[in-house]
Amino acid sequence: MIAGDRGLAGGYNANVFRLASTVEDAEVIPIGKRACERWGKPVVSSEKFPATESARLANELCQDFRDGKFGRLGILYTRYRSMMSQEATLLWVLPLEKKEKDAENAEAAPVFEPNEQTVLNAAVPTYVSGLLSACIRESYACEVAARRMAMDSAGKNAQDMIDKLQLQYNRARQNSITQEITEIVAGSGL
Q1: Chain-wide mean pLDDT for the chain?
Q2: What is the pTM of this model?
């Protein structure tokens, strides 16, 4: 699960945690300070997560998958839609799913050297590592975008509050001045 390192990003982390709570019987490997704190694990920064660590983690997870320690591997991250829209997403990575081709477009099965199992054992950890790195980077970009939108919204709300308070102040001041003028005019007529 990939969450943010810092707060003040609106509902960014809450959306990730909400989606995580829907996945039952899942062992979570948190990445990002907020997720690590929530699951009581040592802090692993999503901002500075190195590619070598992605490769190490991917190799370990692929080996555990081959050993049957778990049945599925998914990456819970935040997907970038636009500057104003980010979506918590669960991407199932393992087991790999075969896409059925149309009968018309069916090609001859490729030949793997030395064999399919050896090629998959070498290629899948690299694929998972690349996918993990991409998801971490995309989640970090979403965190920054969410923080920017939250700060922009907070700035606009603060300006609205200042404008309303300025209007109240000016009305109170005007009422005070009108009251004083009324008292002066009323006092001069006596």
Answers
A1: 86
A2: 0.74
